[in-house]
Q: What sequence folds into this?
C-alpha cells in the first residue's frame, strides 16, 4: 500500500454481527455481509470529492441524484 488511501480508519457492525460497514481515509464507505461461510461486498453510498453543483430526487422518490465537476 502507498499512503493512506486504502486504509480503513474505523468499522462497525450493522444491526447484527452479519454486516460490517467500514470507512477509509478519503471517506469512502465499504460494506460486507456474511453469507454462509464467506463475506460478500455490498453496494454502499458513493459520493463526490468536489463540490456538489446540483441534486434532485428521482420522480419515484427512491433515488437522490447529484452532480459535481469531479
A:
Amino acid at each position: 500500500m502507498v499512503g493512506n488511501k486504502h486504509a480503513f480508519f474505523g468499522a462497525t457492525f450493522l444491526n447484527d454481527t452479519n454486516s460490517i460497514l467500514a470507512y477509509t481515509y478519503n471517506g469512502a464507505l465499504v460494506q460486507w455481509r456474511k453469507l454462509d461461510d464467506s463475506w460478500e461486498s455490498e453496494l454502499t453510498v458513493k459520493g463526490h470529492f468536489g463540490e456538489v453543483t446540483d441534486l434532485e430526487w428521482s420522480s419515484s422518490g427512491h433515488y437522490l441524484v447529484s452532480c459535481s465537476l469531479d
In short: The chain is about 0% helix and 50% strand. The chain has one domain: 8-68. The mean pLDDT is 84.
